[in-house]
Amino acid sequence: MKKKDRPRTATLPDGRILTVADLPPSSTRWVASRKEIIVNAVAYELISRDEALRRYGLTVEEFDSWCRALIDHGPAALKVTLLQRFRK
């Protein structure tokens, strides 16, 4: 069994604990909260960016747009219904 060098848990700035078990299934329906979990999991190195792209069938552009939206405008920007409001 290969040991991974990545952490198993991460403490987010708001105090929430994020674990690998919190990741949504690969066949998930995308909602803002699940997008935020994936972005945070990559940011806190629970999974690699390449693993996230492969596991969830995301394009680099799609994932990067989630990251930018979250950084620039917060979790509300990840909602599909508000996408136009936050686009540059």
TrEMBL record:
Pfam families: DUF1153 (PF06627)
InterPro entries linked to this entry: DUF1153, Trp_repressor/repl_initiator, WH-like_DNA-bd_sf
SUPFAM superfamilies: TrpR-like (SSF48295)
Superkingdom assignment: Bacteria
A single GO molecular function term of this UniProt record: sequence-specific DNA binding
Transmembrane regions: none
Protein's UniProt name: DUF1153 domain-containing protein
Species this chain originates from: Paracoccus alkanivorans
